[in-house]
Amino acid sequence: MLVRLLGPLEAIGEDGVPLAVGGPRARALLALLALDAGRWVPVPRLIDGVYGTEPPGSPRHAIEAQVSRLRSRGISVEHGRSGYRLAVDPEAVDVHRFTRLAAERAAERLRAALDLWRGPALADVAEAPFAAAAAADLEERRLAVVEELAEAELALGRHRELTVSLASVAAGEPLRERLHGQLMRALAADGRRAEALTVFARLRDRLGDQLGVPPSPELVELNAALLRDPSAGAGLTPSPSAAVSAVAGPRPLPAPLTGFVGRTEEVARVRELLASGRLVTLTGPGGVGKTRLAIEAAGSPGPVGEVCFADLGPVEDGVSLPSVLLGALGRPAAGLFPIRTGPVDAAERLVAALTDCRILLVLDTCDRVVAELAVLLRRVLTAAPGVRVLATGREPFGLTGEQVWPVHPLPLDDAVRLFHRRAAAAAPPRALTNGAAAPADAAAVRRICAALDGLPLAIELAAARLRTVGLAELANRMDDRFAVLTRGDRTAAPRHRTLHAVTAWSWDLLTPAEQRFAARVAAFPGGVTAGTATAVEPQPDDLLSGLTEKSLLQRAGDRYGMLSTVREYCAGHLGIADDVHARHARTFLELAEAAEPHLRGHEQLTWLARLDAEHDNLAVALGWSAEHDPVLGLRLLTALTWHGHLRGQTGERAAVAARLAAATATLPDHREEHALAVATAAAGRPAPGPYPPGPPRSPYLPLVRFMTDGPHAGVEFAADPWSQSFALVAAAIGHTLDGDAGPAEPELTAAHARFAELGDRWGRAVALEQLGDIGAARDLFRELGAVADLERLDGLVSDR
């Protein structure tokens, strides 16, 4: 089968008979597939290309229906995981034959390429959403071939024929300077100098009237040469600068010096986004690998067109942006190159240079000019439908249609692989390879990668340090990472040479208010919610959003957290005053005391989850208060007593409990809390006592004493329903240990019923556990089918 797009769409069967393709949607789909003949085209790109901004209710089904119509007419379209593809050799599509012939650049090949054109490209699918940009790109390529062929014909002395063909083409391209320059040379070589000078004069007037610019210096030079030497003609060629401008292309992607590790799925996903959208922004903290991911994604086969790379890191103001991008495109301010719309200032020249292009702009490190670049990109994307943009930065642009892909740190296994590769390159005698490293070395590498949050840049800096520092020493110095990781690639941008520099770059992008807030949030190692953030900022919502957009915070559900590297920098940059730590501790005391009664009732699992989420914050609050406010710490430890038991965290709190017990031993108003601290410090061993006399206020002190001292210690339980329910369990255990199991069954059955009424899943589970093989347990265990949430008792009952 043959497919023709360089004119009205045609599909020719194997027998040479034209195929009836179908209606506008089917024709648009065939054209879109043919432009990428032999390659998989993602479904989102097909939907966008066929239906644009108004897809049907089930766009994927609509594409499937159009594919079925094409297949019913004998057109082979294959389906796979990556989308659809037209099952033909690219040479069976005239666009691809045109591209191959044009690339050979010989005169006869250029003529053969132009002979494939039967009219305007995609003429009868021009209304399809994708068609305008594709047709404009193809027309630009056709004109470029016309100009290349004209140069060849001028060199061969075919002036007279050229005057006719070029005059016809130039009439349709009244502002295309290179084409008019070639026409002037052909006319002059044919002895028609006056006509050549007239061509220049008219072009000069049009450029001035319509665009407000003079002709290019090269064209002025050509005109002057004709005035000086009437015999001059085809032998006149543009000056070297013109020659450069005629062939200079976009700045290519930088060639990576190292291999790419991990992120295979991310590369594929970013490519899909580029295929389906026109603006994709990779966001993430400094050193996370945004640039490398962009290069890998843009360097693959993708949409038709060129790729241009621009590093915007050095750009400090938006005024110079258009000129920087023009330079990256290889487009001078003037010259013998296509100009189709009005380049009055640099921004308009940029828009004009891109209007008829199909190109992917890779704009790296947009952080310092994100607002100005957003305005410029809106102009470019609106005026140039063939342009796609892949940008990297700490924050998105906020433009309609922008697709944002957050770039996260490497998973630990990929981070370790990266470290091994860079270490082998940096210090071959110490080279580490997967599976070959000693266990201690493997553990050290994992410690390093975890301490550096899986940030590729930080890992590469650490691997480079192996030239002068041993692996074990390097791992032990990760607490001082900013002082250690100071020797990066000398040729890298300054912001990438040290860990401090890359983090400082992010810090400097913040407003003063954001910097203050970031320093305070750094006091929360477990992150913050909008609620807990009010401890350091009364109205935190805008600041949370701002720091998240700038990649200083990562959001997971309702929680905002910092990478440890970022947190360490923020904490040390301004310092964190004691009042911030005090506010932090008070906030989590309030949370723990609010949660405590719910840990024995119907909302037990909900409040356990809330406290679990704040594990790191609670640990820091306990540690700080043991040093600075022991009474607050004692209250916090008391409120967390039952949570620690249910989650098996009593042991990890033993050390801080011992410090609190020592600091509060002489406080008469907190004897019960002190006794709990002593018991927690004992970490499950019998506590030295003495326990406060009289009825207990806390339900936990009797429970802890029972667990450590046994059922015959004469424990007096509190009067609240939960304590009395556990008193039944304690009595049953005592009877069982005494060999008198008779009373145990009714006591445990009653305890189970009371715990069920209270909503305490832990109590119910303990009662059932103690019933064991008692016959009555059979009926109760049947209830497990109706108590589905007992399956969620992870961690509530241990040693089962």
From TrEMBL:
TM regions (residue ranges): none
Official protein name in the record: Predicted ATPase
CDD domains the record matches: BTAD
Residue span(s) of domain Bacterial transcriptional activator: 93-227
Similarity comment text for this entry: Belongs to the AfsR/DnrI/RedD regulatory family.
Residues annotated as domain OmpR/PhoB-type: 16-86
Keyword Transmembrane helix attributed: no
Single GO MF descriptor: DNA binding
Pfam families documented for this protein: BTAD (PF03704)
Keywords assigned by UniProt, alphabetized: DNA-binding
